[in-house]
Design brief:
Length: 758
């Protein structure tokens, strides 16, 4: 029923109407959802005489038990505030909408019109809020006055007991562009729950700037062979750009110099009204091109330094390389810094990229990564490539294959992508009726019932409820379920390795895994080195983060090359430094702690290593430890030179007992024998050395023997390391028994023993 055929809809006037704008953060504060649209709208409503507040609810996705408590606190706050209208953007909790209506008596308005729950549980839905705020302001005005509602533009009405009514004018509301309206956002906020990042720490203070809307990428979906047989005639559909995104070919931009001027005006407003502003986030999908001008003018106009976070497609990074270089040069030494916080990778499987209509190749992504890393190495303080780790990824979708998983795992490992897209192993495709992939899933019979899994879809990332879907290949579903069961008992940096183990296990299986049994065995193995709560325990997260920070403060990562090529590398190479001047500065800073650990892919390949160790001792380090594969010290006077330079301790890596097996694992002929030759040299030169024993499935039966051999070469201790990628899920109990035997062997030999793992 439309407004033209419906009876007038009119509610009693509410002259004292108060509006609550509610943001639900699924990631406890680590997300990048902007509060600017709601805060700005609240400010405009206040100028019109209404009471309007912004409320942020910070859920913790690792602690589902807190959800009901936080919802109750929100209801209490809404009741005490006597709000008559509650507005929600991203909402993945249909029950919360009913709870608000039933327990507070407030009307509920949604501003994400294509959410699966929209229009069925909400009283009102604004169909164009992301582009125009005026329709929501008109709704509040009409409710306060008691005016007719069915004549308002861009509004869907679904009041209890009445037929749904859609506005007769869904087209864009004629008005001044949002960016040119007086900037008056509400600064203060009501906070429910405790904002925190994945480490349990308070996240930085950031504000998002809204100016230019949409996305310039406009490859037509209709021309993609993937959709050849799919009917794409729904009027809501976005038919240009990426097939999973509601934007594409709809970029509406002000002149870029005006855009910069508006950005600076907004930043000045925030800096004048806030005690802190750590980061500024741009949502403009074409902002790289004017990043140099924005940073230059911010510096020239005397703004306080901040970090600038800019989105960027992989092909845009290649296209605007000169602008990125210029922006880094401008920011260098100024206190300002910038990064690409949202690279829309989505996948490193070309088949998935083609499905998503990304218009980019895996080779182009590899080149974009190379260029960004090069820029970061040359301007590490100005272009902070790893500052956000929020790049976009979509690993799981109805059409994902095991081969897609394997391709992504290998690319991510080989290119050290984890630090750019933390959490990528849990990312799922979200399907809404305005997206071509929704209709493809419907065409292929892959839509499910209800909404997506509460803990993996919208709720996991904080987006509005989406349509449920099922896998074409049930084995992929097994892999996701197994990863989901085990990831809660695994440190985030090892999740790619966990996915590797899950994919291998499922590929070799004939039937669905014993999820409960594998989880119990996984936890049992983990119990060898960890007895406290899981990742959902915030205290544990804080304690672990503090320990990691303390270790990092005395550790210097150097070099990005290695003379081995281990099947699974222990060290990610994303942050390793090769500028000797910066390495010296970091080494001397670490020396103030009295102990310095020099590590990297293989730090002995750095020619300046003796110079660095001497500098560390001179700067006050009483102990200088080196983490190495030992190969460089297998011959000549290398060990004696190392001792003379001031190295007091060495941690040497080993995987297998037999030298030929070690060579096969490291893919470096001679490495196995060279490691023991180095160990003999360490003992002869009275350098305390310990064995870093990497546990691999092929070598479980050898662990105790390796420990005994290390003792024979004068090792002072054994440190076992269990990597998720090296564990065979079918042999978890065997792995535990082998590690226990190795630890007992170390103790019997009088060696110190420690263990760390996932």
């Amino acid at each position: 029923m439309t407004a033209s055929s419906a009876a007038p809809i009119q509610l009693a006037a509410r002259p004292g109407l108060a509006v609550a704008f509610v943001y639900l953060h699924a990631q406890a504060g680590g997300d990048y959802f902007a509060d600017t649209p709601y805060a700005w709208t609240a400010g405009e409503l206040r100028k019109l005489g209404h009471r309007a507040d912004v409320i942020h609810v910070h859920f913790d996705r690792e602690d589902p038990s807190s959800q009901a408590r936080l919802c109750d606190q929100l209801i209490e706050r809404l009741t005490v505030g006597d709000y008559g209208l509650v507005t929600l953007e991203h909402c993945w909790l249909p029950s919360l909408i009913d709870q608000i209506r039933d327990e507070t008596g407030a009307l509920v308005c949604g501003t994400e019109p294509d959410a699966v729950l929209a229009g069925t549980r909400m009283d009102f839905v604004i169909s164009s809020f992301t582009s125009h705020r005026q329709p929501l302001i008109d709704l509040v005005t009409a409710l306060a006055r008691g005016d007719r509602l069915d004549t308002l533009r861009n509004l869907r009405i679904h009041l209890p007991g009445q037929q749904p009514v859609a506005s007769t004018a869904i087209e864009n509301h004629p008005q001044v562009p949002d960016a040119r309206r007086p900037f008056c956002p509400v600064i203060e906020r009501v906070t429910i729950g405790e904002p925190m990042d994945l480490r349990g720490a308070t996240p930085p203070v950031r504000k998002t700037l809204d100016t230019n809307k949409g996305c310039p990428f406009s490859d037509p979906v209709a021309g993609n062979p993937t959709f050849a047989d799919v009917e794409l005639d729904d009027p809501r559909l976005t038919m240009a750009g990426c097939a999973f995104c509601p934007m594409g070919g709809d970029y509406k931009a002000l002149p870029w110099r005006e855009t910069v001027t508006i950005h600076l005006h907004h930043i000045r407003y925030y800096q004048a009204n806030m005690d802190r502003l750590d980061e500024v986030v741009l949502r403009d999908q074409h902002a790289i091109r004017y990043a140099p001008e924005l940073l230059r003018r911010a510096i020239d106009e005397g703004l306080r330094p901040f970090g600038l976070l800019i989105p960027g497609r992989g092909d845009a990074i290649l296209r605007y390389g000169d602008a990125m270089e210029e922006a880094a040069e401008i920011a260098a030494g100024s206190g300002f810094w910038w990064t690409i916080y949202l690279v829309g990778f989505e996948s490193f499987s070309q088949a998935q990229l083609d499905l998503y209509n990304k218009g980019v190749t895996v080779a182009e992504y590899a080149e974009a990564l190379r260029r960004m890393r090069d820029l970061h190495r040359r301007f590490p303080d100005a272009f902070r490539l790893y500052a956000a780790g929020a790049s976009s990824f979509i690993l799981w979708n109805p059409w994902t294959t095991l081969d897609d998983l394997r391709i992504n795992i290998d690319f991510v490992r080989d290119n050290a992508v984890w630090d750019l897209a933390r959490g990528l192993t849990t990312t799922r495709l979200r399907l809404y009726p305005n997206l071509p992939l929704y209709w493809k899933a419907r065409h292929d019979g892959l839509l499910g019932e209800g909404t997506g899994p509460d803990d993996r879809g919208a709720a996991h990332t904080g987006y509005a409820s989406e349509a449920a879907w099922v896998y074409r290949d049930e084995r992929v579903g097994w892999a996701e379920e197994l990863h989901e069961q085990l990831r809660r008992h695994c440190d985030p940096p090892q999740l790619v390795g966990l996915l590797d183990a899950c994919e291998r296990h499922v590929r070799d299986a004939d039937d669905a895994p014993d999820f409960a049994g594998l989880e119990a065995a996984w936890i049992g193995l983990r119990g060898l080195w960890r007895t406290s709560g899981g990742p959902g325990d915030r205290t544990e997260r804080k304690n672990k983060a503090a320990a990691v920070d303390a270790r990092a403060s005395r550790t210097v990562l150097v070099g990005r090359s290695c003379n081995n090529k281990c099947r699974v590398c222990v060290a990610s190479h994303a942050e390793f430094e090769d500028d000797v001047g910066r390495i010296q500065t970091r080494t001397q800073a670490a020396a103030k702690h009295g102990r310095v650990t020099i590590a990297g892919r293989e730090p002995t390949l750095l020619r300046e290593l003796p110079q660095l160790t001497r500098g560390a001792v001179k700067a006050g380090a009483r102990r200088v430890e080196l983490v190495t594969n030992g190969r460089v010290f297998a011959a000549g006077r290398a060990v004696a030179k190392l001792a003379a330079a001031g190295v007091s301790d060495v941690l040497v890596k080993r995987h297998r007992l037999a030298d030929e097996d070690e060579d096969a694992f490291t893919q470096a002929p001679g490495s196995g024998a060279q490691m023991w030759q180095a160990a003999a040299g360490f003992s002869h030169n009275e350098i305390a050395w310990r064995l870093l024993l990497i546990v691999v499935d092929d070598g479980l039966d050898e662990l105790a023997a390796i420990v005994g051999k290390a003792a024979g070469f004068g090792a002072r201790g054994i440190q076992l390391k269990v990597l998720a990628a090296n564990v065979a899920l079918s042999r978890l109990d065997d792995t535990r028994e082998a590690i226990e035997n190795a630890m007992n062997a170390a103790r019997e030999a009088g060696l110190d023993v420690a263990i760390e793992g996932y």
